[in-house]
Specification:
The chain is built from twelve helices and 15 strands. By secondary structure, the chain is an alpha+beta fold. Helix 6 packs across helix 7, helix 6 packs antiparallel against helix 10 and helix 7 packs antiparallel against helix 8.
């Protein structure tokens, strides 16, 4: 019979060999598994060689993997174990996100510049209109009903009182006192259709409210812008939505601001009164030369009607240059043109900024290829009247023209375009 003590000793050796020796405190606070090697002999094989404990449990029969096959998926990195955050992933490029390509940044810059340019185009004219001077041009008494679209009376004055003697000599204006109108134009812009620029000859024989019949320019000399507006409204039946006036100096500055105007003459033009001396052929006129060109009357066989045509010609040339792409894309020239307009033009106190802006756009349309430039229908260009040699309107044709415009129809004006 085997000794029970030998069986217990062998069981302890087996527990130690396979790692099953669990410590448990005894009543004295010591552990059974914590005894030293001197208290328990090291296990040996049958031949007396010491046995080395293995690192795996007897519950798993598979040996441990070699080091090179161990999984590293869940192994913490050295940087993480030391509290250092892992490096950030590189930024992604392309459409899916991340840093924008250079082409996207370029388009964003282009959109920003385009927006700034559009703001510039709107703000500068607004500044010019605010800086321009105003005059009371609202007529007294009954006025015609408003018509569709916008009608603006545009005049050029020959006032010299605001010029120094040196400026009068330089511009060739003479030294007469008072103020008269050399140019009178109605610009009508309909809601739809072509804009119309209508010239009213200064010698037109019309009724002036409270002053009988006289030449049209006498209305301005007698009662200023208010009486002139009232006279034009009663003669045409159109209600004027705006009033714009330009003097000698302003006209010169405006022509110079756009770099002059091009004209072509079949023969030389010489006129002492307007200080005009131009050779035949195509040439560029500066502000002073253009002023003499539009004022000259006595040397023109058509008299005042010939002057009206030249006024329309220069007005169209200036308008085209003001609205040309070169003016719009050149900020220096754009600023200079608008500021020259601010110093040159005087608008009526009832002429809103909206009406003034619409007038400038309508003027460009009327003087362009799609616009209509006409003179009020004339019955007699050199009629003898109580006011001297005058221009008589063709009353039936003029009435038909203005009645059509009062309805917003500009097609009637096409038959008078030349």
């Amino acid at each position: 019979m085997a000794d029970p003590r030998d069986e217990q000793s062998r069981q302890r050796d087996m527990d130690w060999l396979y790692g099953n020796d669990q410590s448990s405190p005894d009543t004295s606070g010591s552990t059974r598994a914590g005894r030293s090697a001197s208290q328990s002999p090291h296990p040996v094989d049958p031949d007396g060689h010491p046995l080395r404990p293995v690192s795996y449990s007897y519950e798993s029969a598979a040996p441990p993997r070699s080091r090179q096959h161990r999984s590293v998926r869940n192994r913490p990195s050295r940087a993480a174990s030391q509290g250092v955050p892992p490096p950030a992933a590189p930024p992604r490029t392309g459409r899916s996100g991340g840093r924008r390509p250079r082409c996207h940044r370029g388009w964003r810059l282009v959109r920003t510049l385009l927006l700034a340019w559009l703001i510039w185009l709107l703000v500068v004219p607004a500044i010019a209109l605010v800086r321009s001077s105003t005059v009371d041009a609202t007529p007294d008494g009954d006025r015609p009903d408003s018509q569709p679209g916008t009608a603006t009376l545009m005049i050029g004055t020959d006032q010299r009182d605001n010029l120094t003697p040196e400026e009068q000599k330089k511009l060739g204006t003479g030294t007469e006192t008072g103020a008269r109108t050399d140019t009178m134009l109605i610009l009508y812009t309909p809601p739809k259709g072509r804009s119309v620029l209508i010239s009213l000859p200064r010698d037109s024989y019309v009724a002036i409210p409270g002053h009988g019949h006289n030449k049209l320019n006498a209305a301005y000399a007698i009662g200023g812008p208010k009486l002139l507006m009232q006279t034009v409204e009663q003669a045409t039946g159109l209600r004027m939505d705006g009033y714009i006036e330009v003097g000698f100096a302003g006209f010169v500055d405006m022509v110079d601001a756009v770099g002059g105007v091009q004209v072509c003459l079949d023969k030389a033009m010489v006129d002492k009164d307007s200080h005009t001396n131009l050779p035949a052929g195509c040439q560029r006129l500066d502000g002073i030369q253009a002023l003499g060109y539009v004022r000259m009357r006595k040397a023109d066989p058509l008299g005042d009607l010939g002057r009206v045509k030249r006024q329309q010609q220069v007005t169209a040339a200036v308008a085209r240059k003001v609205m040309s792409p070169w003016t719009l894309i050149n900020p220096v020239r754009y600023w200079r043109v608008n500021m020259a307009a601010a110093e040159s033009f005087t608008r009526g106190t009832d002429t809103s900024l909206w009406t003034a802006g619409r007038t400038m756009i309508g003027l460009h349309g009327a003087t362009g290829g799609d616009g209509i430039k006409i003179t009020v229908p004339i019955a007699q260009a050199d009629a003898s009247t109580a006011a001297g040699s005058s221009v008589l309107w063709d009353r039936s044709k003029a009435r038909a023209l203005f009645e059509a415009l009062a309805e917003g129809d500009t097609s009637v004006a096409e038959q008078y375009a030349r």
